[in-house]
From TrEMBL:
Origin species: Streptomyces auratus AGR0001
Any single GO BP term: nucleoside phosphate metabolic process
Protein name listed in UniProt: ADP-ribose pyrophosphatase
One cellular-component annotation, GO: cytosol
Keyword set, alphabetical order: Hydrolase
Record-annotated Nudix hydrolase domain positions: 44-183
Amino acid sequence: MAIKDTPEEWTVTATTTPFTGNKTSVRTDQVVMPDGSTVSRDYQVHPGSVAVLALDDAGRVLVLRQYRHPVRQKLWEIPAGLLDVPGENPLHAAQRELYEEAHVKAGDWRVLTDVYTTPGGCDEAVRIFLARELSEAEGERFEVSEEEADMELARVPQEELVRGVLAGELHNNCLVVGVLALTAAQGGPGLDALRPADAPWPARPFEA
C-alpha cells in the first residue's frame, strides 16, 4: 500500500458559519460518521498561505522575528503570507512576501513541501518554497505596519536552526517544517530534485 494522502469527503447534512472575520471564518458542519451517526465539527476556514525558506550561498537561512499575539511570544519565522486572492498563483505570492518582508529577490525557486498546519481544526494549506540565488531587491522598501513594524531580520546558519528546532527553542510551524525538510532533501536526492515552483497544488488550485 502506498503511503499517500488521498481525497475523501464524508457526507455533510448541514453547514452554518457562526463567525466571519476579516480573513478567516469559523464553520460548523454536521458530518455523517461511518457508523451512521451525525456529529458536529467546528473548524476555521482559511484562504491558505505561502512561506519562503530563503537560503543564501553561505548556507544561511533568512529569518524574521515577529510578535504573535495568540501565543504571547516573539517567534523566529521564515517570510510568509496569506493567499489573499482566490486562485492566486502561490509562486507570485511567495515572491511578493519575500520582497515585502525582506526586500530580497531570488533567482531559483522550488517547492520544498506542502503542509496542512492544523488539519484537525483548520483547513489552512501552506506551500513552503525554497528560494536560492538571493540578491537585494530593487526599488523602495515596502512600508510595514502593525506587528511587522517591530520585525527583526537575520540570516542564521542552517545547522543553528536545526539545533534550535530539536532543542525546543524554535516553534514556528513553517520554520520547523521548512528547515527539517531542507536538511532531509540535502541528505537525500538533493535540492535540484525538488518539485518545480509551478508544481500542481490540489489543496489550493491556482492559475499558471
